[in-house]
Automatic annotation (TrEMBL):
<comment type="similarity">
    <text>Belongs to the flavin monoamine oxidase family.</text>
</comment>
<feature type="domain" description="Amine oxidase">
    <location>
        <begin position="111"/>
        <end position="350"/>
    </location>
</feature>
<protein>
    <submittedName>
        <fullName>FAD-dependent oxidoreductase</fullName>
    </submittedName>
</protein>
<feature type="domain" description="Amine oxidase">
    <location>
        <begin position="13"/>
        <end position="88"/>
    </location>
</feature>
<dbReference type="Pfam" id="PF01593">
    <property type="entry name" value="Amino_oxidase"/>
</dbReference>
<dbReference type="InterPro" id="IPR050703">
    <property type="entry name" value="Flavin_MAO"/>
</dbReference>
<dbReference type="InterPro" id="IPR002937">
    <property type="entry name" value="Amino_oxidase"/>
</dbReference>
<dbReference type="InterPro" id="IPR036188">
    <property type="entry name" value="FAD/NAD-bd_sf"/>
</dbReference>
């Protein structure tokens, strides 16, 4: 059995943000991650040299409308670059054959340089090497006899924590983690009702030797009724490595990676021309198959974007011992990169205040 002043369940961006806040305040946290890697829905494709050349999770931020993003990027020494959207888009399935046509852009859309994985790298820089424990799949949180919280995980030594931040997606918490009964049914219902952003989605990144679509006056943007990608965009890396990315329309349970990759290349060839038939790499990430991100309700229900949930989700529970701070619990941009930053930050600040007040 181990003791910690602060246990953080989940090493996605929200959990890592919370860990950073706590450590900078002089509190050494322990982050417990169920999977075998950190980052949660942020998952980067890296070159042989370790550079980020693609993103299989969230890609965009909107700094003019998300003040938490530029504030944190400045703090971490990171920057953004423009989402490439110059030239015509391709409409697929709206007429007899693909049609080139300008589409309205989205003002303020930007990408983190060199990719969101840089957030994970920067957030963990300076933390002690043993801060995060992977493969620690929390199954239950109980009251300990001394008033602290007792955390259990199969095959792992239990942990006793003064304070606990639960930074996993709310639906995963409701489905996978047994919480103390005095959390209450209304809060459990709030957790179950909060859809997990991107959880049932699959994303594809298709890398090419050069951004040939730009050469022919295309933006790389595709809107399709035929699929398998219902939407695609230029995803060329900051250093110039050419790529496209797209959201897969094929429903969960019907996504065979081999045939899906072939169908994606056929679609891109139809829409962008013969150069699209020769990718250097195709990567597909089916988030519906990620057991600690996609809950059953996300996998089998309609895709939904989380809306700002009740304030009770952001409040202290169990007499100030526990907070929920998955990205979906945020009071702004729930489920998005900004939401993860703000949720982790707010919960950690609240826990730190309690811990320092009790010292």
């Amino acid at each position: 059995m181990t003791d910690t002043p602060l246990a953080i369940i989940g090493a996605g961006l929200a959990g890592l943000t919370a860990a950073r806040i706590a450590y900078e305040a002089g509190i050494r946290p322990q982050v417990l991650e169920a999977s075998d890697r950190i980052g949660g829905r942020i998952e980067s494709i890296r070159s042989a040299g370790g550079g980020i050349v693609g993103d299989l999770g969230p890609t965009w931020v909107w700094p003019p409308f998300q003040p938490g993003v530029p504030r944190w990027l400045e703090r971490l020494g990171l920057d953004t670059f423009e989402q490439y959207d110059h030239g015509e888009a391709v409409l697929d399935g709206f007429a007899n054959g693909p049609v080139r046509q300008p589409l309205p852009g989205q003002y303020g859309m930007a990408r983190i340089a060199p990719g969101p994985g840089a957030l994970v790298d920067a957030m963990t820089a300076g933390l002690p090497d043993d801060t995060v424990q992977t493969g620690y799949a929390v199954s239950a949180i109980h009251h300990h006899e001394d008033g602290r919280l007792h955390i259990e995980a199969p095959g792992q030594p239990p942990m006793i924590a003064d304070r606990v931040l639960v930074a996993a997606p709310p639906r995963i918490v409701a489905e996978r983690i047994q919480l103390p009964a005095d959390i209450g049914d209304p809060v459990q219902d709030m957790l179950r009702a909060m859809p997990t952003w991107m959880a049932g989605q699959a994303r594809a990144v298709i890398r090419y030797p050069r951004p040939f679509w730009r050469e022919s006056g295309l933006s790389g943007r595709i809107a399709s009724r035929l699929g398998p990608l219902f939407e695609a965009h230029d995803h060329t890396a900051l250093e110039g490595q050419a790529a496209l990315f797209g959201f897969v329309a094929t429903p969960p349970g019907q996504r065979d990676p081999a045939s899906l990759g072939e169908a994606i290349i056929a679609q891109l060839t139809r829409c962008l021309g013969p150069d699209a038939a020769q990718p250097s790499e195709v990567s597909i990430r089916d988030w519906a198959e990620a057991p600690w991100i996609c809950a059953d309700a996300d996998r089998h229900g309609p895709p939904e974007h989380p809306r700002v949930g009740p304030e009770r989700l952001r409040s202290a529970h169990l007499d100030g011992r526990l907070w929920f701070c998955g990205a979906e619990t945020a009071a702004q941009s729930p489920g998005l990169i900004e939401g993860a930053l703000l949720a982790g930050e707010a919960a950690a600040q609240a826990a730190v205040q309690r811990l320092q007040g009790a010292a």
